[in-house]
UniProtKB/TrEMBL annotation:
SUPFAM superfamilies: Calcium ATPase, transduction domain A, Calcium ATPase, transmembrane domain M, HAD-like. This is ATPase. Keywords: ATP-binding, Cell membrane, Ion transport, Magnesium, Membrane, Metal-binding, Nucleotide-binding, Translocase, Transmembrane, Transmembrane helix, Transport. GO terms for molecular function: ATP binding; ATP hydrolysis activity; ATPase-coupled monoatomic cation transmembrane transporter activity; metal ion binding. One of its GO terms (cellular component) is plasma membrane. Its main location: membrane.
Length: 650
């Protein structure tokens, strides 16, 4: 009825939704059938329970028979169906109808497992859709002297593209005309916009700043950086890790062994031990029930789900149980810099005044001009001067890539980089030059502030400016970063590296401050992916911690991808396996601790499950275990390992 009222949502009702609905209805019918059987309504029970079999087992049966026909292999799906039907058949044959319920429970377990698996597989599609939102469908192209809008896939090499201020760059291209500041954080992770001029390359998905640009297409749109990122995410997310392939192979081999042994048990005993055929069939079907790997499967998932719930209470979102187990095996961790080890926000970290002025004078003069600017550096300076009283400048003019000029109380003031400001300074202090050089070596951005003549207009700048001082800015390191790194080392992480698109000096400064082993700087997304693959060859299980779109391929490729919840981009959040909801780096160590505990409990549960299976199988072979006892042992072992797994909730 809801779908009839909202037909626009029909397209959103996917196979994953159908699997979830099937599992819910299977459980409901099983519950109602159980009630009917215990109240003596046998007819209703025999109607409800088969319906639970059909609704809950259809998908497993279809997949099992498809694997059998196309790949000529048996898997656990088909084994569960055979075991369930065998239990139901025995129940009808011997009029022990509770056995039908046991088979329905097996069906329900697999229906729930299939629904959860389908839900997890939606991550890839959502990641790609988020990435696609960064790409333009059209571009403004100049052809035959006229501007026209064309589809991206219709662009041709050599086309001239117009990009206005505030627009996304539609595809990778070379600047023909214009000068602008581009926000490349989504692609390279740089915390500050970068200036781009004629002859330099710009990337699709980056945001144009104040200047109009004319670009020339120098490569096909499908070869753009953002398209390569999309392809890398697809590839990395669809590559199954070796452990997953091993589990799948184990399930199929296990199913084959059980089926083969079951067939032999159903045929050979009358000829070898002179068993009656009724006893033989009974023992063979009992074997299928007690050999069902439910306890073995329950040895893992309840533990991992408990760990996931525990992590959620502490602000750690695990997207699937496999990653909880894997994070406890991490031997190397790669961190993105901007927005991960740092806050991603530029702030004033130091103010140095010349001998004639104070630090307050420097901040007030700079803030008077920057209050008229939208540049991130300007905003940081204004924030630093928020407690000071100053009058905003007039006749403010920005010189792209160099600085800003204006009048403050009828006095010329300039704020900008060293090359720009020092053109108008006659006597420059050696002390300030040395201080600026030291700050730059530490990876900080240095802004110079100077005052000129009074009662001057802004048309012609005076050549007799006096340096007021300089302001150093940097992306703030998260206060908990150093402690988090030290804690990871105590947990046994062998190698901790930083991957960043920022410059080498800035990256080295951050790494030294918090204790990073190795730095890889000035990287594009594909470079980060390459480093992760290199680390995996040496350390096998590698985690990647990031927050930006440029981190998505590396997050997808890493054995464990960890994203920052608050600062993270949509693509990073969708691609990652673990999300730190409060952006607290110390939670990585908590996640690893949960993973290590999960490994111990899973191993204990596997030993318990296998012990029960072996005992039941031996008992069945010796004739000491009948079907009801086998069901009790089978279900009892499943409950036992499930309760054992719940220990991780504490």
């Amino acid at each position: 009825m809801a779908l009839m009222l909202y037909p626009g949502r029909l397209h959103q009702f996917t196979k994953e939704h159908m699997d979830a609905v099937a599992a819910i209805f299977c459980g409901l019918l099983l519950f109602l059938g159980w009630i009917a059987l215990h109240l003596g309504f046998l007819g209703w029970a025999l109607l409800l329970l088969p319906a639970a079999y059909i609704i809950g087992g259809y998908e497993s049966a279809r997949e099992g028979f498809t694997t059998l026909v196309k790949e000529r292999e048996l898997d656990v799906d088909l084994l569960m169906i055979v075991a369930a039907l065998g239990a139901a058949g025995l129940g009808l044959w011997r009029k022990e109808y509770y056995l039908i319920i046991d088979g329905a429970v097996l069906i329900l377990i697999f229906a729930i497992s299939g629904a959860l698996e389908g839900y997890a597989m939606q991550r890839t599609e959502r990641s790609i859709r988020s990435l696609m939102s960064l790409t333009q469908d059209t571009a403004r192209v100049v052809r035959q002297g006229r501007e026209e809008i064309v589809l991206i896939n219709q662009l041709q090499l050599g086309d001239e593209i117009i990009v206005k201020p505030g627009e996304l760059i539609p595809t990778d291209a070379i600047i023909l005309e214009g000068y602008s500041s581009l926000n490349q954080a989504a692609i390279t992770g740089e915390s500050l916009p970068v200036e781009r001029k004629v002859g330099e390359e710009v990337f699709a998905g980056t945001l144009n700043g104040y200047g109009a640009l004319k670009l020339k297409l120098h490569q096909p749109p499908e070869s753009s950086l953002i398209q390569r990122v999309i392809r890398l995410v697809k590839q990395a997310q669809t590559e199954a890790p070796p452990s997953q392939e091993f589990i799948e192979q184990f399930e199929r081999r296990y199913a084959q062994v059980i089926v083969v042994v079951g067939i032999f048990l159903a045929i050979l005993p009358p000829f070898i031990w002179n068993w009656e055929w009724e006893t033989t069939i009974y023992r063979a079907l009992t074997f299928l029930v007690v050999a069902s790997p439910c306890a073995l499967m329950a040895a893992i998932m309840p533990t991992l789900l408990s760990g996931i719930a525990n992590g959620a209470k502490q602000g750690i979102l695990f997207k699937n149980g496999a990653q909880l187990e894997r994070v406890g095996k991490v031997r190397a961790i790669a961190f993105d810099k901007t927005g991960t080890l740092t806050t991603g926000q530029v702030e004033v970290c130091q103010v140095i005044a010349s001998s004639e002025y104070t630090q307050a004078d420097v901040l007030k003069a700079a803030a008077a001009l920057e209050s008229r600017s939208e540049h991130p550096i300007g905003k940081a300076i204004v924030q630093a001067a928020s407690d000071l009283e100053y009058k905003s400048a007039v006749e403010v003019q920005a010189i792209p890539g160099q600085g800003i000029v204006g009048l403050v109380k009828q006095q010329q003031v300039i704020v900008g980089n060293a090359e720009f400001v020092q053109q108008y300074v006659t006597n420059l202090s050696v002390k300030l030059q040395d201080a600026a050089h030291t700050l730059q070596q530490e990876g900080k951005t240095v802004v110079w502030v100077a005052r000129g003549e009074e009662d001057k207009d802004i048309v012609s700048l005076s050549t007799s400016f006096n340096i007021v001082g300089l302001v150093a800015l940097a992306d703030k390191i998260r206060p908990e970063a150093a402690k988090a790194i030290a804690h990871l080392r105590k947990l046994g992480v062998e190698q901790i590296v930083m991957l960043t698109g920022d410059n080498q000096q800035t990256a080295n400064s951050v790494a030294q401050a918090i204790g990073i082993d190795q730095v890889y700087a000035e990287l594009l997304p594909e470079d980060k992916l390459r480093v992760i693959r290199h680390l995996q060859k040496e350390y096998e299980t590698v985690a990647m911690v990031g927050d930006g779109i440029n981190d998505a391929p590396a997050l997808a490729q890493a054995s464990v991808g960890i994203a920052m919840g608050k600062a993270g981009s949509d693509v990073a959040l969708e691609t990652a396996d673990i999300v730190l909801m409060a952006d607290k780096l110390e939670k990585i160590a908590v996640a690893m601790g949960l993973g290590k505990r999960a490994q111990v409990i899973v191993k204990q549960n596997i030993v318990i499950a296998l012990s029960f299976i072996v005992l039941l199988l031996v008992g069945n072979f010796l004739g000491n275990v009948n079907l009801p006892l086998g069901v009790v042992g089978h279900e009892g072992s499943t409950v036992l390992v499930t309760l054992s797994g719940l220990r991780l909730l504490k």
